[in-house]
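hiii, so i know i said id send this last week but things got crazy w the move. better late than never?? heres the sequnce for the chain we talked about at the cafe, plus the structure i predicted for it. fair warning i was half asleep when i ran it
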Amino acid sequence: MSPTLSIVLLWIGFAASHLALSHPPIRSKLVAALGEKPFQGVYSLLAFVFFVPLCWVYFHHLHEGDWLFVLPRGEWLVWIVSIGSTLGFVLMVGGLVQPNPASMAGGAMQACGVLRITRHPLFMGLGIVGIFHLLANTSSTDVAFFAGLPIFAIVGCAHQDRRKLAEGLPGYSSFVAETPFLPFTGKETLRGVSEMGPLRIGAGIAVAIGVRYVHHLSALVG
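okay and structure toks below
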């Protein structure tokens, strides 16, 4: 089996198991049989079962396979990828330090900060990182790995929205109406950026710089 096909199949397995276990009928039966905490443990374990091999296969087959397209190399491409990825990390950090909308309830489900930019900042931020890395990593293994990030983000977040709306979670329908699904597409994006504040934005930038530094070191070692 080719590395590219292995990456695609592992992405499918990761996404399918993630969505299946969170499907209300399946989730409710497993929670009833196992309990809430053991179910969360099984959920996390199954995610690692697919995601760890996914990363292992990709990083052992970097830039392999056919080159699907090639953009001219230069400083401009490095800057575009770096700036775009930094936006993604800022969203991810904002999502980590602000309560996840899936865990909110009732009156606490308010649109503010990073949630004005997207109601799914963690996964959408990861998707943005994947999209910008596709500009500079265009072999078949690269595309299979990095394209999986935005695809999983969109499919997974859409599934979460449908599930929460179907469950009738109090306040979620109005929360969906007030917040954009895709990042930076809402009318209150600038307000959301302002509400995030310099500390959270700076933390996201710092994480991006740290990841970039580690990435550079690994390239030198390789």
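btw The chain has a mean pLDDT of 88. thought thatd interest u
miss u guys!!
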